Structure formats: C-alpha cells, structure tokens
C-alpha cells in the first residue's frame, strides 16, 4: 500500500531526522509555516462555528430594544444595558422556576446516583441466584427511551394523583441503567486485594460499599453525577407534559412559555431569560469540565 | 430460586436479601415506568380512545392500517429519515475533522475543545430560542453572514423547504461536540507505533490517515453512528421550541408526532402505534450496538 514518490521519500527522511519523541499524527507533526497557519485558521473556524451563537445570546442580552433589531446587527452592544435582566426576571416567576429546577435536579440526580451506586455494587460484588437474569432486565431498560413511555406514564402518574407535583416530575425518571453499568465497569477495576482485606477484617457489604468502594470510585461517581445533573436540569419533554400551572414549571419550560406568551417583542429580554437557564450549567461546566468529558468518553472507549 | 443439585448456601441467601435491598427499588421503578408502559403502549395501539371516555373501543389493527396508508405519516417517517441521516453524516464528518485538528499540539487547543463541547451541555429549549433569533431573515445573524457572501437568507422557520434543514443545523451544532469528545478518546487509544510503522514504510499524511487513523477509529465511528442515530430519533426540545413541528408538518418527526397525538390531539391509539414504531426502530439499533460492544469488549 505504500507509494514511494519523491515527495513521500523526502517527507520520510525529514521524519527520520527528527527526534523520535515528537508526536506523529495523520497530518504530520511539523507543519511548515503554511500547515501551521492552516491549523490555526481551523481553530478559529471551530470557535466561530460553535461559539458564535453562544456569543450572540450573551451580547443580545445586553442590547437595547432598538439595537437588538438593528439591520445590519451589531457585533458589540453599542449602548450596553443591564435593563433586560430585571425585565426578564419580572416577566415570569423566575425565582419559582429556579426553585423548581433545583428541587427536580437535586432529587432526580440524587435518586439516580444512589441507585447507580447500589445497583452497581450488587452486580459487581454480590453473589446471588438469578443474577444474570436480573442483569439482563436492567440491560433491557437501556433499550426503552423515555419518549416511548410518556403516554402510559402520564396515565399512571394521573392515577397516582401526581400530575403537577414534584414527585410526578421526579419519580418516573428516577431509576437508572446507564449509570449502573458505568459504575459496575469502574468497580471491577478496583484492586481485588483491598476488597478481600476488608472482608477478612469482617466488614459487612454495606460497610465496604460506604467506606471502601465509594471513596475509591469517586471520580467515576462524580462524572456520572454531573452528567445526570445536567440532563435533569435541561429535561424538557416530561416536565412539559406533567405540569400544567405556572408555579410548577421548571426553567426550560418557563423560558419556552415566556417566548410563546410574550412573543418575541423584545429579543434582548428573551436572550436574558435564556441566560438564566444556561448560566448555571456553563458555570458547572467551567469548573468540572474534565469529569464531564471523562464520563462521556468512558461510555465509548472501554478499558 | 434453587435448582436441582445446586443448593443455595446460607451466605448466598443473605446476599440475596442484600441484593433485593440494593437493586429492588431501582428495578421496581423500571417495572412501573419502563416495562409496563411498553406493554400498555401495545394495548393502546389496538384501541380507539380520546383519553377521556370511560371505555376504550377495541379496533384491532385499524390504527396501524390507518397510519401506514396515510400520506401524512409517510411524510413524518421521511422527515425522521432525513433528520437522522443528515444528523449522522454531518455530526460524524464535521466532528471527525474537528477532532483531528483538536488532537494536535496547538496553542489554545484546550480552550477551543471546551468551546466546541459546551453546546452539548446547554438546554435545548434555551438554545432553540437563541437560534430563532439567529435565523430571523431580517435582523438575524445568519442573514448578515450570508450577506457577506452575497446570498439572501431564506425565511428559514416559515418555509416548508428550509425548516427541516434549520432544525438539523441546530441539532448538529448542539451534538457535534459530543462526537469530538468520543473521536478524541478514540484517537488517543491508537498506538503511536502504528503511525511510526507507516512512516518507516514511507507513507505520508494521507497514508497515515487511511491505514492507521481510519481503521483505528472504526469501532468508535460505529459507536458514534449508533448513538447519533438514537439521539436524532429522540430529538424533541429543539423542534418543539423552534417550529412546533411546522410549518405544515415540515419538521414533524416520529417523536414529535407521538407527542402531538398523545397530548394535543388526544388520540391514544395513534400515539400508541407511533410509540411502538419508535420503540421497534430504537430496539433494533440498540441491539446492533450491544452485540457489537459484546464482540469488542477487549478492544482498546
């Protein structure tokens, strides 16, 4: 499959003259000046392509009503204003939305993490009859996306009298399969000797779970917890269906209705409202990016 | 739980109780909110019911016959297909290009990685609203950018020809960072010696890409195709916020149709059929994914 054109040979000899330690990628490592410039143009392109809409949201929130409709649009707010934020805050009960989102996220993720930790422990370390069958049951749950279950679940929740309640939003999504697999995978990489030593010391399973396994698998648990928190915070379809009064809306539903009801009379106010939804996640992301990215990559490339 | 000749020891019995304690609640919730709905969807797909009347009328396969012979449902399946294929191809290819770039030693690379990944974390509802503003044909950002290259902006969200491309653009924009993360993880798992071997054999950049990078990434590419297919089947918030399925069904996908029939039109039977179709499609894809992962447990 190799060709031996002069160009390739020249590149190869260059390759061999270099110290072996430099990394070799498909592009070739030492780009000449042109290659370097192309790579940095690529970086700028990535930033523009993905970053520009977010930049637009943020700057839009600081534009005056006149400027937000300017043709052509302005790149930087010419008369930056903070007025949009109180206006957005007062056009809907945002403090209530925050409270609802916090409750739904904390309890929703709390349940998920708790169930993931306990289920993973049972599957990784307990011996009991019927284990593989139960494992299969959990595996099967992975194949049923929440969207498929919304109608029957709505009817079930209605029968429980849970429509428009916190438990109605939280409980149907509290069980977890993906997190259990992720953690089980991680538990199995823990050094067996530590577990054995704990057993010899007469520690019970619950003790081992609490004071040996959980501290040792902190990074994996944090990764999963963050993914779960972000997912719950952003959840849209189920809370949209199961709530029907303003005071039970979570932030994504609140911002959606704000747009539907208020229309797009003032984009500056609407952008400020979207920032209310997005800002907490952006802050979490800035601090805990590494855990989140690790958690996502762990699902794809198995160790 | 005992089988012949395989007696359960007291220790195992104790662990069985502990197991019930640890896994039981999780499983019980799955039974009520995941397995039961599946069965119940099957039942609903055979009845005519407006979700209010005390009785459900058994109609057999009528709901299936109705949907499968209806032009509207064919359009919805076509929308779902276009949305899925476009998302998979665009996310896969743009994501690969970005990952190859962001896997190199460049100044500012980590900051760019963060920016590229950030939309994955953001609320689809909020992001959808931001994009309505961007897509506006008069004062929107996109109109200005298209103007730079001498193009006129279509009326994206109100034009039946452009609404679906518009939601696809937003969906790809939001998910491409996920693909980049997965690709980079895959790229870093490729042993460096393989590249060196190609170089020793006289291979250039293209040869390295073709003979090392691409085969090395193939499991990751496969994984990504499946996860992005599943993600596009489930895309809802962006569509709800940006177009509400319109104009005239132009952006109604299977999930959106299921929601509409269940919670706007109150037609439980048709929502049931849509749920079953969606489930069967996703089930097939997940099965492929799991069989594949089974075979590749020892990879990387």
Description of the molecule:
The complex is a heterodimer of chains A (303) and B (300). Chain A folds into two domains: 6-52; 84-302, MetI-like fold, CATH 1.10.3720. Chain A has 15 helices and no strands. Chain A has helices at residues 6-17, 33-60, 65-68, 84-91, 94-125, 131-141, 146-159, 166-170, 178-187, 192-200, 205-216, 218-234, 237-242, 251-262, 267-298. In chain A, α4 (84-91) packs across α15 (267-298) and α10 runs antiparallel to α11. Chain A is globular. Mean pLDDT of chain A is 85; it is low at 1-28. Chain B has helices at residues 10-44, 62-68, 71-102, 109-121, 124-135, 141-148, 163-188, 192-200, 205-234, 237-242, 254-263, 268-295, and strands at residues 47-48, 57-58. In chain B, α3 (71-102) runs parallel beside α7, α3 (71-102) packs antiparallel against α9 and α11 packs antiparallel against α12 (268-295). A two-stranded antiparallel ribbon of chain B has the order 1-2. Chains A and B meet through α1, α2, α5, α6 and α7 of A and α1, α3, α4, α5 and α6 of B.
Count of alpha/pi helices of chain B: 12
Q: The biggest beta sheet of chain B, please?
A: 2 strands, antiparallel
Give the end-to-end Cα distance of chain A, rounded to a whole number of Å.
Answer: 31 Å
Q: H/E order of the elements of chain B?
A: HEEHHHHHHHHHHH
Average pLDDT of chain B: 89
* Structural shape of chain B: globular
Query: Which residues of chain B sit in consecutive blocks of at least 5 with pLDDT less than 50?
Result: 1-5
Count of DSSP E strands of chain A?
Answer: 0
Estimated share of beta-strand residues of chain B: under 5%
